[in-house]
Design brief:
Residues 1-18 form the signal peptide. It comes from Marasmius crinis-equi. It holds the Pfam family GH16_XgeA. This is GH16 domain-containing protein. The chain has helices at 54-59, 190-195, 224-228, 253-256, 270-273, 276-281, 288-294; strands spanning 10-27, 36-38, 49-51, 63-65, 70-73, 87-89, 91-94, 101-109, 116-123, 132-137, 146-150, 179-182, 199-205, 209-216, 232-233, 243-246, 261-268, 303-326. By secondary structure, the protein is mainly β. The strands form 3 sheets. Strands 1, 4, 5, 8, 13, 14, 15, 16 and 18 form a 9-stranded antiparallel sheet that branches. A 7-stranded antiparallel sheet has the order 2-7-17-9-10-11-12. A hairpin with a 3-residue loop joins strand 13 (199-205) and strand 14 (209-216). The protein starts with 9 loop residues before the first strand and ends with a strand.
Length: 327
């Protein structure tokens, strides 16, 4: 007599937690400035720049818009007095502060040229105590974007993979270099970015991680919800981010990052772009300050062209259950 023993089948289930985000704000064309204030302050990074107010920016055409375009640029006609103010430019600060969110920036063109230091970033009150997130940043004519975190003193730091320029986010370490990731895509910044028609940057921030993505304009794999600015986003489906900063028990993002204002600005030289070795290694002539002062025509291409910016908040927890059969 044969007995066939049937091994019981075990169903192994794993829960995968992810987030969906809902569109709450959209800035495009003529309404882009409705979400921002002009910040005419002395440059905290000691740049050769003169940030102007809204009235001057408008009269000098440093900001202007159409139905589907917003331009932010610097002056490109004035030879500067060596003892006078820097080159006129614009620094915008969002009217609102944001916590858990996804932001998408659809950018067609960014400032390029020797001496330029454009950025799209965010920071909290009482810097550096509520952290800083640099989503888009670079200097001179570099071709790859860098995403960087800056924090107050503590233990928030990351290893050397994949492309961390510095491991420690502490603003007192490495002259406030922060913990930055250089993107692998050469079209993610500067002249190469502009020649390709720009692309999309996205940043997802919550208490569990901070992620930053970039898709070039000719990238056929850009998620449709990103390309179109869909009303609901599911970032978990977007693939591997270009920069990933997880929260851990010893390195808590919740403790290091508070509500943030978004900043869009263009400065010149200063602590980074004007650092003599970096400037020289970029193949730029003269000194940074001398070049910026005396070559206004070199900054014809020193402008941002935004198609739109969208903000997604009120994250919805989305639980997926994966089931596997095992004998």
């Amino acid at each position: 007599m044969l007995f066939r023993w049937l091994a019981p089948l075990l169903v192994l289930c794993a829960r995968v937690w992810s987030f969906k985000y809902v569109l709450t704000e959209s800035y495009e064309g003529h309404n882009f400035l409705s979400g921002f204030n002009f910040t005419a302050i002395e440059d905290p990074t000691h740049g050769r720049v003169n940030y102007v107010n809204e009235s001057i920016a408008s009269s000098q055409n440093l900001t202007y818009s159409s139905d589907d375009t917003f331009i932010l640029r610097s002056d490109f006609t004035t030879v500067l007095n060596a003892t006078g103010p820097g080159r006129n430019s614009v620094r915008l600060t969002s009217k609102r502060q944001y916590n858990a969110s996804v932001m998408i920036y659809n950018v067609r063109h960014m400032p390029e040229g020797c001496g330029t230091w454009p950025a799209i970033w965010s920071y909290g009150d009482d810097w550096p105590n509520n952290g800083e997130i640099d989503v888009v940043e670079g200097t001179n004519n570099q071709d790859a974007n860098e995403a960087t975190l800056h924090t107050n003193t503590g233990t928030l730091h990351y290893g050397s993979e994949p492309y961390y320029d510095w491991e420690d986010c502490d603003w007192l370490v490495n002259y406030n270099a922060g913990c930055g990731v250089k993107f692998r895509q050469a079209k993610s910044f500067g002249p190469a970015f502009n020649a390709n028609g720009g692309g999309w940057y996205a940043v997802e921030r919550n208490d569990k991680f901070i992620k930053v993505w970039f898709w070039a304009r000719d990238n056929g794999d850009v998620p449709k919800e990103v390309e179109c600015g869909a009303p609901i986003l599911k970032p978990r489906t977007w693939g591997t981010p270009d920069a990933y900063f997880p929260s851990t028990n010893s390195c808590s993002l919740e403790q290091k990052f508070g509500p943030h204002n978004v900043i869009i600005n263009l400065t010149f030289c200063g602590d980074r772009a004007g650092e003599s070795t970096l400037y020289r290694n970029s193949g730029c002539p003269s000194t940074c300050v001398d070049y910026v002062d005396n070559n206004p025509g070199a900054f014809v291409e020193a402008f941002f062209d935004f198609a739109w910016m969208k903000v997604y908040e009120t994250p919805l927890i989305d639980v997926e259950v994966n089931a596997e059969l095992s004998a």
